[in-house]
Amino acid sequence: MLIARNVLLTLLIIMLMLSAIAVIYSKYQSRHLFIQIQDKEKALDDYEVEWGQLQLELTTLTEENRIEIEARNRLLLTLPAQNKIIYIKP
Question: How many Å apart are CA 38 and CA 30, to the nearest integer?
Fold first, then answer.
């Protein structure tokens, strides 16, 4: 009877230790996944910021008077005087 009791007690202690190890492992996995989620959320925030910047750049580049502004500033072009313009009829 004493041997059976000791065997049962040993089995219960082993099961308790295995259960504790399983809880520790589960907590470790949970923390690991939480860190991965935070990394993905940060990457998503970075992509959203970049998307906003690209949308703003697209709006700037598609302005109608952008070509005229670039021609004046970069190429130093000006509109010719009214009497210098020659109209060609088709």
Answer: 12
CA distance 27 to 34: 10
Nearest to 11 by CA among 46, 28, 24, 3: 3
Query: How many Å apart are CA 90 and CA 78, to the nearest integer?
Result: 26
Contact indicator for 69, 75 with CB cutoff of 8 Å: no
Tally Cβ neighbours within 10 Å of residue 84: 7
Q: Please report, for the chain, the start and end positions of each structural domain, with discontinuous segments joined by +.
A: 1-41
Q: For the whole model, what pTM was predicted? A: 0.57
Distance CA 20, CA 13 (A): 10
Tell me the C-alpha distance between 67 and 63, whole Å.
8
- Say if residues 67 and 73 touch (Cβ distance below 8 Å): no
pLDDT in tens, 35-61: 999 999 999 999 999 999 999 999 888
